[in-house]
């Protein structure tokens, strides 16, 4: 409730069109209610708060890919990830760019502001390559977590071609990863 009140006060102060609410991962883990209900209350709250886009943290995998896909399906906002891909070769160093089924897109472009000062902002998500090592193995089976910088660069030209004026990396890398 306190976070929602603060977000709403910022929206009121600067204007709804000039704000955007995003998340860089681990949103479904931490509170007792969310843990007991495998993220359901958090998704419902984020929907009510009008989140615009989110990416995955390592804790989104705590209950496995099926539960994760269920939560993503309940969200009114897209989940983006440029570096979580299908292990289509059996070797992550040679895996292609096929995104996992629970990933909505590698990036999402949102317009912030009003004309003539509106900006098209691309939000691209990256998650720590350590995720398969620090979560339950079955939760990331069949997935690769590609190099985050390489992943952003892979989509850079597409984001610019789609009209992005600004690119924001939603990073769940921590301090050591970049």
Give the topology.
Elements (H helix, E strand, L loop, with lengths): L1 H13 L7 E2 L8 H5 L3 H10 L3 E2 L9 H11 L9 E3 L20 E6 L6 E9 L3 H4 L2 H4 L2 E3 L2 H14 L4 E7 L6
Parallel strand pairs: 1-2, 5-7
Antiparallel strand pairs: 3-6, 4-5
Overview of this protein structure:
The structure is a single chain. The chain is globular, with a radius of gyration of 16 Å. By secondary structure, it is an alpha/beta fold. It has helices at 2-14, 32-36, 40-49, 64-74, 131-134, 137-140, 148-161, and strands spanning 22-23, 53-54, 84-86, 107-112, 119-127, 143-145, 166-172. The mean pLDDT is 94. The two termini are 32 Å apart. The chain is built from seven helices and seven strands, in the order αβααβαβββααβαβ.
- Using DSSP, what is the number of strands? 7
Q: Largest beta sheet: what is the strand line-up?
A: 4-5-7
> Radius of gyration, Cα only, in angstroms?
16 Å
General form: globular
Percent of residues in β-strands: 15-25%
Could you estimate the helical fraction of the residues in percent? Answer: 25-40%
- Secondary-structure-based class equals alpha/beta
What is the mean predicted local confidence, pLDDT? 94
- The N- to C-terminal Cα distance equals 32 Å
**What would you call the quaternary organization?**
single chain
- Spans of at least 5 consecutive residues with low confidence: none
Q: Biggest sheet: strands, sense, closure?
A: 3 strands, mixed
H/E topology pattern? HEHHEHEEEHHEHE
Number of helices: 7
Name the descriptors.
single chain, 178 residues, alpha/beta, 7 helices
